[in-house]
Amino acid sequence: MSLFSAVADFLKPAPPPDPAVLTALDRVVGMLGPQLRLASHFEKRLAPAVQNALSYCDGLVAALPGPVDISRQAFAADPLVHALFATADDIDQMLGRSQAVRDFLAEPCAWEGDHFYAMFAARRQYRRQLGMAQQGDVIRNDVPQTLLYFSGQTLIEPSCRLEVTLHGLRCKAFESLLHTFGAHVEALRQEREGLRADASVDHAHLTILRGTSGGDEFAVTTRHLAKLSDRLRDNAESLTPDHLTGALADYLQQPAAALRLSPVSLSVDRLGVVHDSADGNGDVQTINFPELTARDRRLHLAMLARISRDEALDAVNRVRDRQHRFMII
């Protein structure tokens, strides 16, 4: 390549970002505030990081296992589904009480297929107990046991088309990253208000001390006020559009710190008792699933689920009927 060609390529304007990146940048501004667009070279600085975060979210959603059938039949046949619910009736309760499922079933698109898809999420819990177990040739009823169970079962982004559910989950994953960064910005703003309040108190105290002979206290308060002023200056700098844009770009280049899947493997029996392994015990099954760490730092089992539309509709109608009868009584 000639020197002239090299210079021409260097001076050539950068190609516009991908439409998906532009849409994501609009979402960034919508969630974090329009002041970000005041940053110099906002789009150029943030577009590569946003592209990286979108690619990460695509991979995260693609790594979700499933779709796994969730039904009464699956509760009896699938060890994982059996572990997720205490009884088969709890599946109906989850479906019937889910606002996302109710909203989905009210839409005409719910009748496009016999099944629909969603992300299933639940929290892993443990309880200690004393139970029966065979130790050698002796059966004891006071053996310490760990019981596995799940709570907060919920369905997210239901749709008759799996690709629609996956697209919705990718969008939610990106929004989760922005929510986490937004919480950091809000913490900075709250810190600024606290520093301003402390500085106001110190200023008032200094005004009183100027009319007294408390030289040592005046000096201590003056030094403390100077430190507050330095912290306020640093805080104000961190909240400028340029600094926030740079911090957001760095954050979106490392999204796994805020949103990630971690594999989990457990051996449990049909009663939910956790065992060291399933070796040599036909009543013990090993279940595998990923857990999602999101902005609230709580772990949630996450997987794709497939659910019968008619079973969900029956569950919603039964729950509504019970609620109606309860209101009448």
3D structure, described in words:
The chain starts with a helix and ends with a helix. The protein is 54% helix and 23% strand. It contains 11 helices and 7 strands. The protein has helices spanning 3-11, 19-32, 42-62, 72-77, 79-84, 88-97, 99-105, 162-209, 215-238, 241-252, 309-328; strands at 68-69, 115-135, 138-159, 260-269, 274-275, 284-293, 299-308.
- Give the class from helix and strand content and strand pairing: alpha+beta
Name the average pLDDT. 87
The helix count comes to 11
Q: What's the number of extended β-strand segments?
A: 7
Characterize the main sheet: 7 strands, mixed
Report the β-strand fraction as a percent range: 15-25%
Task: Tag the structure with descriptive keywords.
single chain; 329 residues; alpha+beta; seven-stranded mixed β-sheet; 11 helices; 54% helix; extended
